[in-house]
Fold this protein.
Amino acid sequence: MGYVITWSPESLIDEYARKARIVKEGETVEVEALRGLEEVEVPSVGRLEAFYTDGFRTLLHTIKNVDSMWEKTLRHPGHAEKIGLLKALGFFDEKSISVDGVSLSPRKLTVKLFDQKLRRPEIRDIVAMKVEVSGIKNDKHVCYVYHLLDRYDENRRITAMARTTAYPASIIAQLMLKKAVKEKGVIPPERLGMSEEFFSKFLNGLEKQRIKITEEEVLE
C-alpha cells in the first residue's frame, strides 16, 4: 500500500471512512473521503498524491469569511485506489456480519490486519506537510506557502509522526507553564498561533527539536 502504520490503525481507518468537511464557495459541505485526488510535488520527497480527509476540526469555526478551504492527506501514488477498493468491498464497515456462526465487525478485523501487516518498524517514516494560504493583502493578491518535512530520528529512535505530534504538544504545555498563554479555557491551537509573539516562541521550540517550517511569499 506504500504505507506503514505509525499510529492508531482505528483512527487511520476512521479518516478514510468518515466524510470530509470542506468549505466551498463560502459554505461548509461534506464530501467523500479519498475524493479530490491530485498529484503534489514535495521538495526532497518527490511526487505524492493528495485526497480529501476530515482534518479541519476547530478550523471550520475559527477561520471565517473564506471562499474555499480544504484539507488533504498525502500518500505515495496508488494508495488511495487500494484503500478505495477495501472501502468499496466493505472492509471498513462497522456493522457485524456472521462468519461460520461468529459475529464479526469487518472494520475490527481490518484494524487487526493493518496492525499486524502494516506495522513495519524497520521502515523509517517521514512526515510531509504543505499549507497554502492566498488572499488580498495591501490591495494585492498574495500567497503564502509553508512546508514541513520531518524524518525518523535514528539517534533517539523516534518516528517522524511521534516527533511532529508530541513535541508541539509538549512545547505548548511548557509555554503555558511560563505564562505565555494569556487566555483561559479551551483554546484551539490555531487561535494561539494568531499571536505573532506566541507563534515565534513556538517555532523556536520546534527548531530546538530540529523540526523546521519554511515560509515562502508568492505575489500573484
Summary: Helices lie at 9-17, 59-62, 79-88, 106-117, 160-177, 189-192, 196-208. The first strand starts at residue 20 and ends at 24. Residues 159 and 169 are 16 Å apart (CA to CA).
